[in-house]
Amino acid sequence: MDLFQSIDIIGLDISDYSIEVAQVDRKKRVALFGRGVLEPGIVASGKILDKPRLAEQIKRVLVSTRPKSLAKAKSLKAIVSLPETRIFTHRFEIDQSIKGENLKNAVYEEVLKIFPFDLQKSSWDYLVFPPKIALNSKINPTQTPLAQPKNTIVYFALPKDIAVSYFEVMQNADLVPYIFESESQALGRIMLQEEQHYKGGTAILDIGSKNTILAIFDSRKALSLSVTIPIGGWDFSEEIAKAKGGISIEDAEQDKCALGFNQNAPDNAIRPILEKMFEKIIAETKKSISYYTSVFRESVDSLVICGGSSMTPDIDVFFRENLDGQFPVNVQLASLDDKVVGSKGFLNDKNVPAILFSVAVGLAMRALDHDDLTHRGINFLKRMK
């Protein structure tokens, strides 16, 4: 059987700067991929400014996918990441005994208390996670009984007009809008090992071109905190270009990728520039880990760095130097080859690093769950109408 013909679902990641497409086969191998850079004025801060141009750019990426073009694909379903900058996330607990329609009503009532915009004008969904520790059936009857365990609810919402705009673009690009979810959920799916048991939380730091997303998942792999830091790779390159007398962004990017945080490189003038730029990311990372630890009473054991700027030389060393002591976390660089079997065989173009496809592959991986696919996990399309 031709695996390419048997799969009709793609992962589609759209940012202000680029489009990434990925498709995986049933053996969790990247079957094909494509990427295109967006011109300014098409998407800004996650908001679509020019729907026709974005739809046209998506079509061009589908034509150029490798090793096989999707140009002639019919009824292709798209699992799409909606912009993290536009998504509101709230985590809270509800008694385990509340189920069904009563649970949905209880969730609705809870978020009404703190929600920043009109629920009637939002697309929303939520996940339910069981208690971390089950009731101890061997407790002595004379002891005070433990409190009724509570389920953890992770609620996601964004303005409905954002979801509608992405829906319309998908249709204009001749795609079937199938699942809309958050970038952080897709990252968690690809970066957290499905079969691995986690004792503590895991922080995923995705350093993109315009924004940096910090998402912390607890030991059950439940998203507990998501923070968007308004700084990214483009800002780093701009600052380097400015500091070096107005060199081109392209040259600044080359310097950043060649030298980065490398302390051993002689006369590395790039490191102090980056250190200054990363102060905000380090501060927000420390603040978020402190908040998570105090509120959820669980340590953060690992920090996984991904996104385009994760390729900056010695960035992991820099984070260890700035977190160790206060936060003894295991800092590691994400590798897509470690997460998806066979990805190196397809994503081996030095000009298009595999790590840029993290979100797209994470989205595509959801296609492997055929158990009521559109209703497992977050799907903003459920209540978009």
TrEMBL record:
CDD domains: ASKHA_NBD_PilM. It comes from Candidatus Berkelbacteria bacterium CG03_land_8_20_14_0_80_40_36. It holds the Pfam family PilM_2. This is SHS2 domain-containing protein. InterPro entries: ATPase_NBD (IPR043129), FtsA/MreB (IPR050696), PilM (IPR005883). Gene3D superfamilies: 3.30.1490.300, 3.30.420.40.
